[in-house]
Specification:
Number of domains: 4
Helix content: 25-40%
Strand order of the largest sheet: 4-3-2-1-5
Largest sheet: 5 strands, antiparallel
Length: 605
């Protein structure tokens, strides 16, 4: 090909350009802009003269008609760009030179440089064609998917592609090509919001269990035979298992024998041996998971049917006996395996018997309650609610604080203190529960004071040595009354069984490992419960329409007033130009609900 001259067609940065001058460097017109370049920066395609490159990209149909013949003719040969243009189009013009070079640049049929071009083997051409067709089909499918997502008109076939968005919404991955393409922030909330808009998720879908990676299925394990134990016959005592209406897993009951209180607990250690398959499964879960629409059990439900107190004529139990002195302190503690006969009762029914059948127990537990208060026990009186979902409908009811609940609660706390002291006195390694005192101690009376004091509280923890539990006002405490629902309660039972039957106890290292694993699993379950409750509260407000109700101001910061809505146990912040009057009720109304963020906005009415 001739030397570069003015008016020549050259190839520069993947585009066509016209040479406008030649000196020590070459002047070109590139996108209507004059540039000076080196000769090695360009490729000469045609000597010219050409004055306009705007029409060069027009198709030249003749090229495709003769392409197969040219490929066959030139097989194994090397030609120049000028020769290739002549073979393809029968002439060498700026247009044919450019069209021929574009075929070389494309790389499907030819490869090489302007002075040495060779056809590619037919097999490679066919393979590359298939790849390109596949890629083209994929691009068309992708573009169609993105268009449907943007317009909100997805089809069933799109669901497999939206899995990546679902995984991001459930914090199972950190990015999404779909969200990035359509310009949505790659956050779990925005992913959730898109899935709702597309109808991929219904509003009811609760992503929190997946986000915290909790198992949503009950364990399916064979239930072993019970271990025979020498049991004390306490069937002559009237024992009551007092629970909420509809409760299906009664695992504790109370009796009174003169002035001795007995707390009977389902004997889980008679079935679940340390390091058995069922023990390891329970350890990985840590606790039952209680959601408004479902309960996921730590143990197979068949165990409750077998060990639940009052579900059979006779119930095997671990029984804890103690007396309460006039000062409220526990005395004469004993622990034994027992056989009991239990009657089941609801809290509502028990409330009717507080001044008759349960009068003596009420007096004893009140002494113990006052004893705990003298040890700085603090009861944060903040609203609690019970959330239930049935057939898609959400109901929220305040959690009742009745006399029978107080009675049962005091008995269970006393049992925890009694076992803690028993284990400490006999050098039985168990997981003790303790709570460090807050840096600032208060005596809250008003709701706002309880709200403020909560921020000073430190979380309850577990350790292998006894320590005071500040909130409960107990100097040494362990959780023992729910071995069918909490793994560390089960560990306490297993250690008591080993001691009472003369078997080897778990060593401290094994106990520490169990505490760590169970606490980690329990932490995930509790967070799942908390965020799930918030999710269903948002659904409840959505179902209610423009909900209105009473709220109480509990804190103020720069005109942002924090309220508590007692009937919902919600704590919204409302911006107001007026100063807050703490602890005085006001009416509020929902203005917007954001389910992905778990937030509802309110205004003062």
């Amino acid at each position: 090909m001739s030397e570069i001259k003015q008016g020549a067609l050259v190839y520069y940065k993947s585009k066509a350009a016209i040479v406008t001058g030649v000196s020590d460097k070459i002047d070109i017109l590139f996108f209507k802009t004059k540039k000076r370049v080196r000769d090695k920066d360009i490729k000469l395609l045609h000597p010219g003269v050409i004055r306009d490159v705007s029409d060069l990209d027009k198709d030249v149909p003749e090229s495709l008609d003769t392409l197969d013949e040219v490929l066959e003719l030139l097989a194994g040969e090397t030609v120049s760009l000028e020769d290739l243009a002549d073979y393809l189009y029968g002439e060498f013009t700026p247009q044919t030179a450019w069209s021929s070079w574009m075929l070389v640049v494309d790389g499907l049929y030819f490869e090489g440089d302007t002075d040495a071009i060779t056809p590619r083997p037919l097999a490679l051409i066919n393979t590359e064609k298939e790849k390109r067709e596949t890629k083209k089909a994929q691009k068309e499918a992708w573009d169609g998917l993105i268009t449907r997502i943007k317009t909100g008109k997805i089809v069933t076939e799109d669901y497999t592609h939206l899995v990546e968005v679902e995984q991001l919404a459930c914090e199972e991955r950190e990015n999404s090509r779909i969200l990035k393409t359509i310009g949505i922030n790659e956050t779990k909330e925005d992913a959730h919001r898109l899935l709702l808009r597309l109808g991929y998720w219904k509003e009811e879908y609760n992503p929190w269990p997946r986000r915290f990676k909790v198992d949503m299925n009950d364990p399916v394990l064979a239930i072993p035979e019970t271990v025979e134990s020498e049991r004390r016959d306490l069937q002559h005592l009237q024992a009551w298992a007092i629970d909420d209406v509809g409760n299906q897993d009664p695992d504790d009951a109370i009796s009174l024998d003169g002035d001795r209180v007995w707390v009977h607990i389902a004997d889980a250690s008679s079935l679940i041996m340390p390091d058995s398959e069922m023990d390891i499964e329970a350890r990985s879960r840590g606790t039952n998971l209680y959601l408004p629409n479902k309960t996921v059990h730590m143990l197979p439900q068949g165990i409750t049917e077998q060990l639940g107190l009052g579900l059979q004529q006779q119930s095997p139990a671990l029984s804890i006996g103690f007396t309460v002195t006039e000062s409220g302190a526990l005395d004469k503690i004993e622990v034994c395996f027992s056989q009991v006969k239990v009657s089941r009762m609801t809290y509502n029914d028990a409330d009717q018997l507080l001044e008759s059948q349960f009068a003596d127990l009420v007096a004893i537990t009140e002494r113990y309650h006052q004893y705990r208060l003298s040890n700085d026990a603090t009861n944060l009186d903040l609203p609690q609610v019970n959330i239930r979902v049935k057939d898609g409908k959400v109901t929220i009811e305040p959690y009742p604080q009745t006399g029978s609940r107080q009675l049962v609660s005091e008995c269970m706390l006393a049992a925890g203190e009694a076992v803690s002291r028993f284990a400490n006195e006999h050098d039985i390694p168990i997981p003790y529960a303790y709570q460090p005192p807050p840096e600032e101690r208060q005596d809250p009376k008003k709701l706002s004071e309880h709200y403020t004091y909560r921020r000073f509280f430190k979380p309850s923890r577990h350790a292998t040595e006894p320590a005071p539990h500040f909130g409960l006002g107990i100097l040494s405490y362990t959780r023992v009354t729910s071995p069918l629902r909490r793994y560390l309660d089960l560990v306490v039972h297993q250690q008591l069984r080993a001691f009472l039957t003369g078997q080897p106890l778990l060593e401290y290292a094994a106990l520490v490992e169990r505490i760590g694993l169970a606490d980690e699993a329990t932490f995930a379950s509790r967070k799942t419960e908390r965020f799930s409750n918030q999710h269903w509260k948002m659904l409840y407000l959505k179902q209610q329409g423009q909900w209105q109700g009473e709220a109480i101001a509990v804190a103020e910061n720069d005109r942002n007033i924090t309220f508590i809505v007692p009937t919902l146990a919600l704590e919204p912040r409302i911006r107001s130009k007026k100063a807050a009057r703490l602890d005085e009720p006001v009416n509020v109304q929902v203005t917007s609900i954001d389910i992905p963020n778990g937030q509802a906005n309110f205004r003062l009415v």
